[in-house]
């Protein structure tokens, strides 16, 4: 039988990682994580852009509903008497929603700070049709990046019919 005592085994020196091994490991880890981080960043940017687009569409729908709920003549007169473009921040509905104190109103103010809107009335090609209908267009503009000039736009159209010609 070939038995060895623990005392006869060769003693191995403690082996530590060298600086080159650590540098290679960190570089390999960074190379592996970089695509994941870039994907996360791009996803966050797209989510923010979709959120802004959704907010613009909801605001435009609210403005359009306001004008469509008015009587025919009052609706056209209200649109033509206002001056556009206007800041979303300056609307009565916005000031009511943001009047509450707290984090929600601050977030709302910061989000809509650069949003602008414009409402136009398109008259039909024939003059006698004005008494029957007209088209209302609501355009909402906002910047892609906060503080930049408006570069994105959402438009919503509707036709207003005269209920009592």
Layout of secondary structure:
Elements lengths: L18 H51 L2 H10 L4 E2 L4 H6 L5 H9 L4 E7 L10 E10 L9 E10 L4
Give an account of the 3D structure:
This protein is α+β, with helices and mostly antiparallel strands and 165 residues long. It has a domain at 57-161. 46% of the residues lie in helices and 18% in strands. It has four helices and four strands, in the order ααβααβββ. A four-stranded antiparallel β-sheet has the order 1-2-3-4, covered by helices on one side. The protein is rod-shaped. The chain starts with 18 loop residues before the first helix and ends with a strand. The mean pLDDT is 84.
Q: Which descriptors apply to this entry?
A:
alpha+beta; 4-stranded antiparallel sheet; 46% helix; rod-shaped
Strand percentage lies at 15-25%
Strand/helix succession: HHEHHEEE
Query: What is the CA-CA span between the terminal residues?
Result: 116 Å
Query: How many separate helices?
Result: 4
Ranges where pLDDT stays below 50 over 5 or more residues in a row are none
Give the proportion of residues in helices.
40-55%
Output the radius of gyration.
32 Å
Structural class: alpha+beta
Number of DSSP strand runs: 4
Concise synopsis of the structure shown:
The chain is α+β, with helices and mostly antiparallel strands and 165 residues long. It is built from four helices and four strands; from the N terminus they run H-H-E-H-H-E-E-E. The chain has a four-stranded antiparallel beta sheet, with helices on one face.
